[in-house]
């Protein structure tokens, strides 16, 4: 029964236009194509419609910029009420887009889609391969100067308002944002969403990017927010590994990809905070640590970058809540169980963390996380995210990645 509902959600959120086929994360609240949401959608589609799965990724990569960047949002639809919409970003080509990227999970998801139907996937993947490679190169060349992956906007990390970014955002002047109507506030309880002060700063960063014409050299040198993140680094390492594995099957020379993965495995050492005894985000402007064990750190297994200290944090953080792994340390003062990325549990993060457990041979942990994620969905529906203590439903409903994660993993 849940399988039928999940498939109906993916079909219901499917938007097929002249420009291609894409899935909105959820109707109304998020009316466009989002980068990592689409990668998870493809994984979900691969359980019952492989052609549709590939088309999701193909449509996303059709919006790739000339420099290789794949934007975090693609504005296929005018959706005039959305803020910040295409006119605020002032970015993209034929199809307007946002000006930043999002977690590069597409190669990891493409590999799973390919495995679901090896025969059909070969030609589709062969066509996508150079585009994925160009995107991975973009990350290495523009965001990895410190050795690890950095983000120029909290939204680039996908974990929009997690406390990891507080230290970097403190240096951003949000005055001058003026009045504006946020789409999320009209539709979701304000107590579950980022505050106005945070939002003003997000908009200041968008303005900075637009004013420099999204010139990467200027952004890397001068954007008032620039933080290195273990979570993004682990995701990119894993994506390099997955792309390399697919490249080998396609007969490609993957030396460059192997080199990138090795370089990041060295570089991520710069994000080990000895005082915290954990992987930690770092403000590259001030040099300050975020000082928080976030869900990004829990992706270390995904990349094979685990350390014994992280096992202790995992056990501690997991036992402090009831369902799955929270988006932020439940024992830290910044923890808020219902506010977006400051505590709630996110189904797609659980799925990524679980892929890491599988890689590390932690089958028991993977099973526990899968069962807890399934319970959240069975109890509260296909919601955007959940309260990790009592499973209360949060954010948008009939959510694409929740349905996808159910079909491909949690409901298995
Ligand atoms: C929010 C999330 C982001 C996601 C988007 C669409 O902005 O923080 O990770 O991609 O919504 O679901």
TrEMBL record:
Residues 30-402 form the Mannosylglycerate hydrolase MGH1-like glycoside hydrolase domain. The keyword Glycoprotein does not apply. InterPro entries: 6-hairpin_glycosidase_sf, 6hp_glycosidase-like_sf, Glycoside_hydrolase_63, MGH1-like_GH. GO terms for biological process: oligosaccharide metabolic process; protein N-linked glycosylation. Pfam families: MGH1-like_GH. Keywords: Glycosidase, Hydrolase. One of its GO terms (molecular function) is Glc3Man9GlcNAc2 oligosaccharide glucosidase activity. The keyword Hydrolase applies. PANTHER family: MANNOSYL-OLIGOSACCHARIDE GLUCOSIDASE. Belongs to the glycosyl hydrolase 63 family. This is Mannosylglycerate hydrolase MGH1-like glycoside hydrolase domain-containing protein. It comes from Salipiger profundus. The lineage of its organism: Bacteria, Pseudomonadati, Pseudomonadota, Alphaproteobacteria, Rhodobacterales.
């Amino acid at each position: 029964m849940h399988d039928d509902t999940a498939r109906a959600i993916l079909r219901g959120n499917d938007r097929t236009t002249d420009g291609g086929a894409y899935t909105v994360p959820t109707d109304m609240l998020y009316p466009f194509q989002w980068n990592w949401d689409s990668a998870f959608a493809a994984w979900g589609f691969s359980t019952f419609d492989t052609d549709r799965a590939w088309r999701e990724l193909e449509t996303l990569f059709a919006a790739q910029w000339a420099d290789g960047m794949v934007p975090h949002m693609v504005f296929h639809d005018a959706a005039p009420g959305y803020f910040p919409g295409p006119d605020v970003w002032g970015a993209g080509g034929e199809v307007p887009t946002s000006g930043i990227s999002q977690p590069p999970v597409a190669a990891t998801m493409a590999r799973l889609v390919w495995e679901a139907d090896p025969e059909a996937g070969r030609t589709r993947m062969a066509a996508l391969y150079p585009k994925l490679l160009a995107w991975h190169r973009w990350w290495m060349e523009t965001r990895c100067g410190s050795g690890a992956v950095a983000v120029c906007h909290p939204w680039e990390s996908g974990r929009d308002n997690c406390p990891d970014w507080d230290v970097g955002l403190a240096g951003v002047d949000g005055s001058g944002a003026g009045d504006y109507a946020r789409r999320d506030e009209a539709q979701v309880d304000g107590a579950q969403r980022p505050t106005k002060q945070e939002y003003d700063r997000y908009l200041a960063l968008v303005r900075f990017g637009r004013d420099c014409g999204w010139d990467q050299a200027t952004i890397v040198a001068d954007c008032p927010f620039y933080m290195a993140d273990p979570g993004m680094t682990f995701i990119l390492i894993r994506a390099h590994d997955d792309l390399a594995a697919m490249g080998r099957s396609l007969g490609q020379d993957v030396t460059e990809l192997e080199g990138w993965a090795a370089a990041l495995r060295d570089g991520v050492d710069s994000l080990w905070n000895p005082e915290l005894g954990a992987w930690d985000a770092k403000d590259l402007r001030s040099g300050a640590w975020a000082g928080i064990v976030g869900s990004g750190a829990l992706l270390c297994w995904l990349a094979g970058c685990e350390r014994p200290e992280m096992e202790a944090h995992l056990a501690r953080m997991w036992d402090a809540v009831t369902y799955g792994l929270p988006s932020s340390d439940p024992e830290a003062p910044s923890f808020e169980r219902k506010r977006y990325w400051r505590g709630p549990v996110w189904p797609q993060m659980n799925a990524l963390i679980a892929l890491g457990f599988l890689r590390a041979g932690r089958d028991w942990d993977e099973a526990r996380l899968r069962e807890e994620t399934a319970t959240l969905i069975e109890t509260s529906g296909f919601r955007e995210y959940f309260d990790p203590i009592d499973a209360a439903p949060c954010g948008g409903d009939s959510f694409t990645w929740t349905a996808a994660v159910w079909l491909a993993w949690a409901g298995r």
